[in-house]
Amino acid sequence: MASTRVGGMGVAAGALETESKHRIRDGAAVLAVLDRLGFRADPVSLQADEYYDTPVGLLGAANLVLRLRVVDGQVTAGFKGPRSFLPDGSHARIEVELPAADAEDVRAALAEQGLVCVWRLQKRRREYHRPGLSIVVCLDELPRLGHFVELEGESDDIAEVRRSLGATIGPAEPLSYRDLALRWLGEQGRTTTALTFGTAG
Length: 201
Fold this sequence. Notes:
This protein is an alpha+beta fold. It has helices at about 25-35, 60, 105-110, 155-165, 175-185; strands at about 5, 10, 10-25, 40, 45-55, 65-70, 75-80, 85, 90-100, 115-130, 135-140, 145-150, 170, 195. It is built from 5 helices and 14 strands. The termini are far apart.
């Protein structure tokens, strides 16, 4: 069961999110396939994510995610449970995501609980939807990391769209965007805790 989506963002209480992430090999071909399948695009949004943990990294060690996200002035606070990988390379995890009125209030509340911001990441995202399918196709651009597609929805719908995309995308990527960013930064010999369009260098 995928998380309920409100205004282009997942808002759920204990929903099970299933997704499959792939590097895009041929962007024009991906767009052509989505058009042929009847998907229609939302406007591009800039997502600014902040990840929080204890000072000694207890959440990360348990494969838990606590995230603050700001998109076009809309703020959500999200929690993700451990990932369970499926045979096809996709994964499922519990996700709880709730709207918040003000980012500073959320930051203050997290600080009161002894949590600190350990990572910041930006991405440009365009979502594609098709009536009758639960799946949401997200085309993402990340600074320095390139372009990816995320398929979020029911497992059968993910498999159907992935078959249609074929060789236009790479194999399922097991690493999160944060882990991909950390790997890239490590390869560059950099120790920054952020990867944003303004500071990627």
